[in-house]
Amino acid sequence: MAAEYTYRVSAWWTSGRTGLAKCESSPNTIHFSEAAELGGLQGRWTPEQLLLCALAGCFTTTFHEVARVAKFDCTDLEVEIEGSVRRHRNTGCNFNEILLRPRLTVHSEEQCEAGLALLRKTKAVCMISRAITVPQTLEPTVETGKVPVEGWNNQDAVAKVGV
Questions:
Q1: Taking a C-beta distance cutoff of 8 angstroms, is the pair 106, 145 a contact?
Q2: Distance (Å, whole) CA 11 – CA 22
Q3: Backbone phi, psi, residue 148, to 5°
Q4: Mind listing the pLDDT tens digit for each residue in 94-111?
Q5: How far lies 86's CA from each of 34, 44, 52, 83, 130, in Å?
Q6: Where are the beta strands (DSSP E) in 35-122?
Q7: Half-sphere CA count of 44, side-chain side, radius 13 A
Q8: How confident is residue 1, by pLDDT bands cut at 50, 70 and 90?
Q9: Which of 106, 101, 118 shows the shortest CA–CA distance to 67?
Q10: Cβ of 34: how many Cβ atoms within 10 Å?
Q11: pLDDT at 157
Q12: What is the C-alpha to C-alpha distance for residues 1 and 3, in angstroms, rounded to an integer?
């Protein structure tokens, strides 16, 4: 395995406040636009969303590697990322905070603490998370998926553990 990798993405302006991006490993291009709040088009990915998507994707794949090495088996992982952007008079728009909200589903309550520890470790080793200098807050949740009892809804059948 190589010790160094290079990734390339190309983006170009198409018209107005929109553009296209592509990479060598995917046959699909991404249509992006400046955020609608800043005059861009609705219905297109924005650079802000693409940054948060990179973080969510990296966190997800990093967790699965961390869990594999720890021989930790889980049912599901969903990662929600929320970024706050504030407009400043002198510097323009900047991210001022990013919230990482991973929701891990495990088989039993005995796995909850270990799952929480693995989510924290993932945040510490995630390459994209480490590359972003914006303050990031981890708000993890670990749930146990239980078999619903007749008459209960799914909300009644979940135990949650968080920070």
A1: yes
A2: 6
A3: -65, 140
A4: 999 999 999 999 999 999
A5: 15, 21, 16, 10, 22
A6: 76-88, 92-106
A7: 20
A8: low
A9: 118
A10: 17
A11: 47
A12: 7
